[in-house]
Specification:
By secondary structure, this protein is an alpha+beta fold. Helix content is 22%, strand content 32%. Helix 2 links the parallel strand 3 and strand 4. The longest helix is centred in the C-terminal third of the chain and has 19 residues.
Amino acid sequence: MTPTRLLEVLKEYLEGKTELLRFGEEDKGGRRQPQVFIGYPPAKTANVAPPPSPVPGVRPPTPNNQVIPPPQPKPDLQKIFYEDEKIYPFVIVRLLDWTDEVGELGEQAVASVRVIFGVKTYEHTGYVDVTNLAQTVRQALLEDLVIGDAAEVQKPLLVTVYEDQAYPYWIADADITFVIPTIISKTMERTDFYGGNNWN
């Protein structure tokens, strides 16, 4: 199992484990099942101003007569991340690092994954909602321990619910370590290299 495949398997797994959960407010978009994203949620492009459209009767820019549009402000990715209501509630699966090592059962890879939870609500229950979402995932992982064919959860599993929250957005995350199969090198044996073990 490759690290990329681990993310795909984990996304599918978390979608199944959170399919009965609903977060949000009935009068503000309704209560919805969490969406699961790999890496990052899609950016909200509405905050990014498009380039100016051609104006009829105005010559296009030439090397000697440059028409330079005014600089557009760079999008604030953190602001887009928090203000895009369409992505809430969400679970984000993000690979931090992985390493190959020799374990008790031989060659293996250890992958560190961060799972980020987000809920948007103006109600006072937001802190409890995001905690409940994180706990649902934590409990499922600790009960199953093996995800997909061969990804094994390692303890401890650290869950953090942040004390400072950007109301009405509520964020928590979990740092999880998985042991997955690694790549086994194909080393040509000396007897094969010399065409057999006949040394006479």
